[in-house]
Amino acid sequence: MRELTGLIGLQVISTSEGRRLGTIADALIDLARGELVCVTLARTPELQVVLAEDIEVIGPDAIMVAARDRIKSREELSDELERGKSVLSEPPAVVTNRGTQLGRLGPVTIDEGSFRVVRFEVTGGALKDMTEGVLALPVLEGIVHGEDTVIVPHEVVAKRIEQSGGLRGSFRSLAERLRGGYEDLSVKLGESGEKLKTGASQARERADELTKSAREKADRIASDAKQSIDEARATARERAEDDEGAEGQEPEAEVSEATKARVEEAMAQSQAGEDQAEADDTGEEKPQAADVPDEEQSQEETEKQLAPERATPLPEGDEKPDEAAPSADNTDDSEQP
After folding, report:
1. How many CB atoms lie within 10 A of CB 55?
2. What is the DSSP string of 255-279?
3. Of 4, 51, 172, 268, which is least packed with CB atoms within 10 Å of its CB?
4. Kind and range of the H or E element at 107?
């Protein structure tokens, strides 16, 4: 790609002769067809023209043609000169088909291989270009390229104006980016808010579950502890009752087995004493105090024998009442003549 102004000043060289033929002074284009028509040579007595179709190569420093005969005069190329317009020395005005003034024709870019116009720019001056940007248009169908004015379709240009650069375009682009960023940020914040809400809800549910589990565990431990305490108390109570029962049964067994014989023996002795007393009342002589046991002494011995813990057998030296009575009888018999 090369701008049209880049052709000005290039050398024109004949490839067959190896000879410099001149220098390019101007380039004529047709925006209606979107092509380079021809170039003109500088410093010639008459206008000399090289058609675009006769150019072999457009190089960085020279334009190569086959031979000198490729250079034509004005008379030979009158139709091409009428179709091609010079846009470099006096840029034409650019307006829309609805009568909107856009500015003047600016830089034109061509393809070096096909010599086709790729695009052209519309400039409104340095200040307008800085604030609103340069309007760049492709070759459009319906363009009219006249002597001093280029007419372009309004509909296409209106869309291009909305996409123009400059400070206005930069501000517009910045505003659009900010708007898009704000919307993206709002969406992200909304998503983050939803995530935070979801996370808080899940954390709350988890905390409730943990609290419920801890409460159930505490209740279970308390219930187990209470049951253990109740069991311990019941066991202690049973042991106490068993101990009390054992303590109450041992004296009973001792009285029924060890003391029963002594009580019966004491009762028998008491009955024998009563029988002896009745016999004395009927006329028999009472035994002496030393031989017959006193009634009070016999009662004390009986009470002693009735006490289980202090029950002891009768002394061997004491005589039973039933044995004392015969001795009294014997004494009485001896006293009789």
Report:
1. 20
2. IIIIIHHHHHHHHHHHHHHHHHHHH
3. 268
4. strand 101-110
Q: What is d(CA 122, CA 318) in angstroms, rounded to the nearest whole number?
A: 163
Q: Which two tokens stand for residue 303?
A: 């009470």
Exposure b/e, 130-161, CB count within 10 A at least 16 = b? eebbbbbbebeeebebeeeebbbbeebbeebb
Cβ-contact 144, 150 below 8 angstroms: yes
Burial of 122 (0-12, 13-18, 19+ CB in 10 A): buried
For residue 24, give the nearest of 2, 321, 270, 179 by alpha carbon.
2
Task: For residue 4, give the nearest of 139, 141, 112, 113 by alpha carbon.
Answer: 112
Residue 96, C-beta contacts closer than 8 angstroms, at least 6 positions apart: 102, 151, 152, 153, 154, 157
Residues contacting 108, CB < 8 A, separation 6+: 3, 4, 29, 87, 117, 119, 120, 121
Tell me which residue has tokens 């009342």.
Answer: 281
Q: What is the dihedral of CA 240, 242, 248, 250, to 10 degrees?
A: -130
Quick: pLDDT tens for 86-114. 999 889 999 999 998 888 999 999 998 89
Count of beta carbons in the 10 Å neighbourhood of residue 270: 16
**Domains, the chain, with CATH or none:** 2-164 (2.30.30.240)
As a whole number of angstroms, the distance between CA 21 and CA 53 comes to 17
**Residue 3 contacts residue 119 (beta carbons within 8 Å):** no
The pTM (predicted TM-score) of the whole model is: 0.48
Per-residue pLDDT tens digits for 52-75: 999 999 999 999 999 999 999 988
CB–CB of 6/117 below 8 Å?
no
Amino acid at 241: E
Which residues, including other chains, have CB under 8 Å from residue 102's CB and lie 6 or more apart? Answer: 94, 95, 96, 122, 124, 135, 152, 157
For 293-305, the DSSP string reads: PPHHHHHHHHHHH
